[in-house]
Design goal:
The chain contains 11 helices and 35 strands. By secondary structure, it is of the alpha+beta class. A 7-stranded mixed sheet has the order 18-17-19-20-27-26-25. It has a 5-stranded mixed sheet with strand order 7-6-3-8-9, with helices on both faces. Strands 28-34-33-30-31 form a 5-stranded mixed sheet, with no helix packed on it. Helix 2 packs antiparallel against helix 11, helix 6 packs across helix 10 and helix 7 crosses helix 8.
Length: 705
């Protein structure tokens, strides 16, 4: 047992205060009534000082409370086995602390983030004299400290951070903070040894996400938030609501909807089908519970629950599914999912097939239609048109009325008047996706739709025929630009890196056009490029969407790519399920006028558009329902924010212990013992108050007699 602040034991000198107060207490004079007072001479009242202790039990309680409070302020800790090894010579160290939602998990009533704070303190105390320490968190808004020889600054910053109500509901893998940590070490290097001490939970997104190094001669040393690698505490079982969805149930009623959710029971080990736990799930509309159902969930597995509800009012309603009657779940925050619910919520998509074929693999829209049918989430109404039918609808008084997105799949350029009508519809808010092929002529498209395209077309190229590239007969895809608005929230390579393309269209560079590249080929040529035109959006895929030019439609990432791209092109997003974001994911708000976003807490925040005709709303840290007001003449936008289900996965991941070359120092694990003392002080003060009230009441009754 040791004390982190031994000087605070001087507070024990305050024990003399209650003792002196009891001894110097004054006896109030007691008045005695006489039958006759005329023979008694008036005199001053005599007050005597108490010569012996009274109310000894009350005094003992007060002394015990003061003594325990002074001991708690000295912060006693007990040391366990070594938690981590640190470099044995003075060096520059960066503490990288996991600040994601999974750090809220409580093991034996100790939160992982509180354990991380204790682990950071143990590392700081074990650093050799002359070392410097900095601080980074995976939470982008968390504290960030430059390297400093004052080792106490990191402890203070972490303490203030914890006092601010972290962790938030965000999902940040621990390795996302490594670039910042490496930059701090590079910015202040002076030939000293350097290291990153990463503190988090042993999960795939925590310590399991870390590489062995953060740069040349910069080892990444993992530190478990609780326990040590030799003795990790068992992961407690907890429940989460992983996903929700809904669809119209017109077979029951024109206004009926069918709502479903997936409940997961997280526990280490394989699924135990015979080990079932009953969980209550409630459906809420407008903040009020409208239905409840029980579901039996196997240990380590999942179960589906379903509700059927008939909507009464018009317009979307804020809805949620929530796990209820959970007694002290170890990981709070993932038991509810919000969404908007409406009887009608369909996205109207028109697929224009420029090269139909009886062979499915070579039909322009077969893979696209299949992907749209398989896409989860929002309901889609997909119908096809021939090129001449499209031109006919573009010549109507209200061209393409009710259509949200149009896909031109290897379609010859429309006639000039139809192309002009299509351009006007995009300016009004229509989404347009153009995919190329044999029937696309660069000159005709540039002449009739050049103003609309993200970049003008140059020529179709067979891979391997360009100068200097004859050795390659196919072109692969580079890693996706996950910062693109259409791909935000997705991860890794989307399952597209293995795609091979045999032919593609080259584009004419134009620095005057503001374009965003979502996908590129390994040669650097754009594969999927987007641009805002008026109030609408246009996307251009520079290869075919069938098997003629590429095997892109066969890749597992094709379905989520199509789903996200179509949602991005639908700029109106009037429907109830128009947008569901992860916590912290920005929301793109189209329009050139300021908008007001109403948060789940009722706060009204301004969203100001940039020079590209859209505003980026980033304050989506609170799960719940959001409403965007855009003026009296435009209907409001709605979107919901949900926690990332990946943060609920607390499955232990095999993590190798730290590897240190040269001398090392062991930092012992410290277990705080002052928290029970604070609770004991509170209990003693409660007993003291009750006893003092009882004694005072008795004395008053005695005086009255």
């Amino acid at each position: 047992m040791s004390l982190l602040a031994p000087l605070l034991l001087l507070g024990l000198l305050g024990l003399a205060a209650p003792l002196v107060a009891h001894l110097r207490g004054r006896e109030e004079p007691r008045k005695i009534a006489f039958a006759a007072l005329r023979f008694v001479r008036p005199g001053d009242e005599v007050v005597t000082m108490r010569r012996h202790l009274r109310d000894r039990l009350l005094l003992g309680l007060r002394l015990a409370a003061l003594a325990l409070l002074a001991l708690a302020l000295a912060r006693p800790v007990s040391s366990g086995r070594a938690r981590v090894a640190v470099l044995g010579e003075p060096h520059d160290a960066i503490l990288l602390v996991d600040g994601s939602l999974s750090m809220s998990l409580k093991t034996d009533r100790v939160r992982a983030l509180d354990g991380a704070a204790d682990a950071a303190a143990a590392v700081v105390d074990a650093l050799p004299p002359g070392s410097r320490v900095g601080l980074v968190t995976s939470d982008p808004s968390g504290p960030r400290l430059e390297l400093s020889a004052d080792l106490g600054l990191a402890r203070e910053a972490i303490g203030e951070w914890l006092a601010g109500g972290v962790p938030r509901a965000g999902a940040w893998p621990l390795d996302s903070g490594l670039p910042v940590a490496a930059a701090l070490l590079r910015a202040d290097g002076g030939g000293r040894r350097r290291a990153v001490y990463a503190i988090g939970d042993p999960t795939a997104r925590g310590l399991g996400s870390l590489p062995e190094t953060a740069g040349p001669d910069v080892p990444v040393l993992p530190v478990p938030a609780l326990g040590s690698f030799d003795a990790l505490p068992p992961v407690p079982e907890h429940m989460s609501l992983d996903s929700v969805g809904w669809e119209p149930a017109r077979d029951l009623d024109p206004r009926a909807v069918r709502v479903w959710g997936v409940v997961r029971r997280h526990a280490p080990g394989p699924v135990e089908a015979d080990n079932l736990r009953r969980v209550a799930v409630a459906m809420q509309l407008g903040g009020e519970e409208v239905a409840r159902a029980d579901v039996m969930v196997p240990r380590g597995g999942e179960a589906r629950v379903e509700f059927t509800h008939t909507l009464i009012g018009d317009g979307p309603s804020p809805a949620a599914l929530a796990l209820v009657e959970l007694a002290d779940d170890p990981l709070p925050g993932d038991e509810v999912r919000h969404f908007w619910l409406a009887g009608e919520d369909e996205l109207d998509i028109v697929l224009v097939n420029g090269d139909p074929s009886e062979m499915r693999a070579h039909d322009e829209v077969f893979f696209l239609a299949t992907a749209l049918a398989a896409a989860p989430g929002r309901r889609l109404r997909v119908h096809g048109l021939a090129p001449d039918q499209l031109e006919a609808r573009l010549r109507e008084p209200r061209p393409l009325a009710g259509v949200d997105v149009v896909v031109l799949a290897n379609v010859r350029a429309p006639a000039p008047d139809a192309a002009a009508a299509l351009t006007r519809r995009v300016e009004e808010g229509l989404g347009l996706l153009v995919t190329v092929g044999e029937r696309v002529e660069a000159a005709a498209y540039n002449d009739r739709l050049g103003e609309l395209l993200p970049l003008r077309l140059r020529e179709a190229l067979v891979v391997g025929t360009a100068p200097g590239r004859t050795e390659n007969r196919t072109e692969g895809l580079a890693p996706a630009n996950l910062a693109h608005p259409a791909l935000r929230g997705l991860g890794d390579d989307l399952g597209l890196l293995g795609a091979r393309t045999r032919r593609l269209f080259l584009l004419e560079p134009d620095a005057a056009r503001a374009v965003d590249v979502a996908l590129s080929f390994t040669s650097g040529a754009p594969a999927l490029i987007t641009r805002t035109h008026g109030r609408g959006r246009v996307a251009l895929l520079t290869t075919s969407v069938d098997r003629d030019w590429s095997d892109l439609p066969l890749r597992p990432g094709f379905v989520p790519l199509v789903e996200r791209l179509v949602a991005y092109l639908d700029v109106s997003q009037q429907g109830a399920a128009g947008a569901v974001l992860r916590v912290g994911e920005p929301r793109i708000l189209p329009g050139d006028r300021p908008a007001t976003v109403i948060t789940p807490g009722g706060e009204r925040l301004a969203a100001v558009p940039d020079g590209h005709g859209e505003a980026v709303f980033k304050d989506t840290w609170v799960p719940g329902h959001y409403t965007v007001e855009r003026g009296d003449d435009e209907p409001p936008l709605r979107f919901a924010v949900q926690v990332d289900p990946a943060e609920s996965d607390t499955t232990p991941h095999a993590v190798a212990g730290p590897r240190i070359e040269g001398d090392e120092v062991l930092a012992a694990a410290r277990y705080p013992r002052w928290r029970p003392l604070v609770l004991l002080v509170a209990l003693i003060l409660l007993i003291e108050s009750a006893l003092r009230w009882r004694l005072t009441t008795r004395r008053e009754q005695a005086r009255a007699r």
